[in-house]
Amino acid sequence: MRPTLRFEKHLWKIGFSQIAGVDEVGRGAFAGPVVAAAVVFPRMRRKVYSLHDVRDSKLLSAKKRELLALQLKMRSLQWSVGSASPSEINNYGIVKATFTAMRRALKKLKHVEYVLIDAFYIPYLRGLSRKRQLAIVKGDARCFSIAAASILAKVHRDRLMVELGNQFPQYHLDRHKGYGTSLHRQALKKFGAQSFHRKIFISKYI
């Protein structure tokens, strides 16, 4: 399934111009932050929408995501990322932390009029009530702006995890990006947890 501009076109038609697509990555990982990205594209510029390879970030190779992220940033009106730390995830739970990351990403943008989100409405979003949000089931597969946000978030988080992996090579974070692979579980059993781990996610492995 290729994401389309169907949702954006409808909103453009009824008068909205600053429409932000939002998505998160890292929600199910054992370690590292949950990261959200928000991105706004100009109305109907062909150069932006000629990026036919834009997909849900999980369906793309790392090399393809890096290339697309650079192009998407250059062709967007504005973009941003926000995150919630492992300590915030440990203290408040992954759901609240995810919404926190999304709100932080959107707060960095200017004059957003409407938000397109993958699956869930964002509570307590100042100036953007549910009337100015659209939660789209499988949004990263159906909506261009959400798919683009998923790519930007994934590239940003992967870079963070590679940098963290350089500091803690025994956990092989550069390979699994903090997710609960067998390699990561084995490292947890051998070396224990660090401050970048999510306690509730890893409790049965340490």
Characterize the structure shown.
The protein is an alpha/beta fold. The protein has a single domain (6-160), classed as Nucleotidyltransferase, domain 5. It is built from ten helices and five strands. It has helices at 6-13, 46-49, 62-75, 86-92, 94-107, 139-142, 144-167, 173-176, 182-191, 199-202; strands at 19-25, 34-40, 78-84, 114-118, 133-136. The chain is globular, with a radius of gyration of 17 Å. The model has no long low-confidence stretch (mean pLDDT 94).
Give the helices and strands, then pairings.
Layout: H1 6-13, E1 19-25, E2 34-40, H2 46-49, H3 62-75, E3 78-84, H4 86-92, H5 94-107, E4 114-118, E5 133-136, H6 139-142, H7 144-167, H8 173-176, H9 182-191, H10 199-202
Parallel strand pairs: 1-4, 4-5
Antiparallel strand pairs: 1-2, 2-3
